[in-house]
What we know:
Blueprint: E1 8-12, E2 15-22, E3 28-32, H1 39-42, H2 46-58, E4 60-64, H3 81-95, E5 100-105, H4 109-117, E6 122-128, H5 134-137, H6 140-153, H7 160-163, H8 171-184, H9 187-199, E7 213-218, H10 226-234, E8 240-244, H11 258-268
Parallel strand pairs: 3-4, 3-5, 5-6, 6-7, 7-8
Antiparallel strand pairs: 1-2, 2-4
Helix pairs in contact: 6-9
Amino acid sequence: xxxxxxxxxxxxxxxxxxxxxxxxxxxxxxxxxxxxxxxxxxxxxxxxxxxxxxxxxxxxxxxxxxxxxxxxxxxxxxxxxxxxxxxxxxxxxxxxxxxxxxxxxxxxxxxxxxxxxxxxxxxxxxxxxxxxxxxxxxxxxxxxxxxxxxxxxxxxxxxxxxxxxxxxxxxxxxxxxxxxxxxxxxxxxxxxxxxxxxxxxxxxxxxxxxxxxxxxxxxxxxxxxxxxxxxxxxxxxxxxxxxxxxxxxxxxxxxxxxxxxxxxxxxxxxxxxxxxxxxxxxxxxxxxxxxxx
Length: 293
């Protein structure tokens, strides 16, 4: 297995933002997970590593830990979307990227806002399980559930029930997720992120997006209401919307999923060519004289 790419830092104001780059462009793409990540630890999960290498197979793929999470500098106050866009600019400048495709998953407000306000710098946009307002996902019942997980069970891996209920059946993945959870953010920062996401609302900027946009929705997930995702997608002019079965939000689309092929097509202009799994073989039967008797 190839080694993970090195972690580098971009300076954004007084903060340092950790990022990694894999593959060669063009195209260039920034993959933004949410709401937290850990660049180094995520390579320890084989499926996450496969997805990242798939991005790197057709693009120069850039990943970064948001301010206050993972390997990036901690914060003592909630980072606004404007501040997060400054961080994204800093990463792009450090890599030397002029125009970039953005892929935002689950908490995709940063990508939507950046695409709407920086159309000259964004070539394409992919939003995965996006909603216009955090208050839609984090209603009173769901907020209480998440607060209980943060206050009483942080670091035990129980967030798999929201982000990866199917993979949670894999004991090795569940153990890794618990470590991942603890490494991404502290319990206090997790609560701050919950407050930030509850307040986030990009509904007003979605109609201003003018770049080619693909919206992917997973129907059976337990966190993002499908109706809300459809409503958000309907606000984006000429967006292509694709729905798929399945419950896991984390690491979707997977490396071999057809939705990943759609992303590659949007970014490169052509569909990937799958090698045929059919094999032509010749089988020789022989019988030595008298051996049957």
